[in-house]
Amino acid sequence: MSLLAVDDLSVSIGMVPLLDRVSFSLDRGEVLGLVGESGSGKSLTAMTLMGLLPLIGGRITAGRVRFDGIDLTTLPEPAYRDLRGQRIALISQNPMTSLDPILTVGAQIDQASRLHAGLSAAAARARSLDLMHQLRIPEAVAIHGQYPHQLSGGMKQRIVIAMALAGDPDLIIADEPTTALDVTIQAQIIQILCDLVAERGLALLLITHDMGVVAQACHRVSVLYAGRGAETGPVHDIFARPRHPYTKALIGCIPREGQAPGTLVGIPGMVPTAFAYPKGCRYHPRCTAAAPDCRTEVPAGSIQGVGGSIVFCHHPLEVGHV
Amino acid sequence: MAALTALRSAIASPRGAPSAAILALAVTAAIAAPWLAPYPYAAQNLAGAVMEPSAAHLLGTDEFGRDLLSRIIYGARVSLGVAVTSISLSVMIGLVLGAVAGYLGGWVDRVLMAVADVTWSFPEILIALVLIAILGPGLSSAGIAITIGYLAQFARLTRSQIIALKRETYVEAAVSIGSGHMHVLARHLIPNALTPVIVAGMLAVGDAIILEATLGFFGLGAQPPLPSWGALMSSGVAQIYLAPWVILFPGLAIAVTVIAINLFGDALIDALAIRNRLKER
Question: Which chain A residues contact residue B274 at CB under 8 A?
């Protein structure tokens, strides 16, 4: 059984349904990329898994989320609090704002350790320094006593990762961990995360809008579009043979070496807002292969190919159509 | 620390430097009154009553022949002491109430803020008079009245800070490492909300000095022979034509101190760059 299994998860904020029957699963030692444009429901999925929906006025309307045999959809808040940090940790989008500006970064990592292992102040500090060494933070002792504004973005993101690791979690949800960083730092952070998965047998849910990051880091990928699943499967399979037109278009957006100037294409149009989701397949207004049934019928998931990819499309692209 | 740097640059600013010097003087007078005052504050000398300023009595004497300078110095202790103590209490209680209201929201917030709005809709002096009518005149009644009169202001300011801060990612991050409500409030939210509330508190000390002086002037604050600046002024009313210095010097002490507090507070607001945050109430 998978460590994390999300089945037909639907989430609303207020009266507005935002996630519609999203499913994916994740195992120890595995990196799952959750991909989609802004507004596709990636971060909302992260908030849901962390049990933070009440903070933003959201609730689960249908579906199940099972984590290591625990049903998270019905878990009471006190039990959830024990889970957060210790079993599931979140690395949030923007390291610039995820650290409290008036506490030293060391104090914040120490706090995460103390909350969970019940360590003394000295032991927590030793543990923080150890974590900082593991994350290849130079001069850890000096940085431990510094405030967030004194550090670079990449360093802050490492601190945030150290905080996430302090509780020794089984699952890390990284919500666009590199979006706010310089390109040169992005690769380092992704490498650190991948190493952690390999060394510690963590499960990593890597939320990103960058298909390049997915290709580099993930074992499997789940593509979301406008709150619904589009395609899920092994990375090599999906990159070699994308069957959903949206997946193919996303892959087409990755700049390639040696690409002639001016040939990089985006996807025309925008992700619809939750107030105006189109009928049928939500991608059909932007889809180059939309047929009449796409406008009326919601596509069901179908298993395609040997890799076991699941595609939510009435007219999946033929293999070899790349 | 950012706060210390801001304090230093406020002290060095054109408005901050003279006002800081005056405040330092007033605070020194309050703390070191027994050593600085040339005479005991209650020492009467009826033979030397209502004397003009002279070498022996730099600011003259009052109707009982008490040295006015000594009484103003001791008055600083009473007036500043009451104002600072009661505003500190007010800030602390307001901080807790506002933080709880802002963090929990819902009916707790509505009830607390409804009460705060009711007290805020009356002038502080009116609240003070009602409370003193209940508690009886005296220094501690004046202190309690000031504490309650300014409570709503600090509760509302704190609440608005907390509401803005609780959407910060670091709060979400703290929750997602498993921190409980108390921890998030005490360690992340209140410390980050503190700066504007403390500055507002400092400015309110100026208002509180005036309120205490008003109460003292009407004999509702410090009771004789204990000198407060307001009570000193009131004893000068009777001889305003005969001996204007008796009302003038305590009045000057109040005015200069309050102006200094406001100027320094203003310099501090600029040094901390929190003018906008103070407007959110």
Answer: none
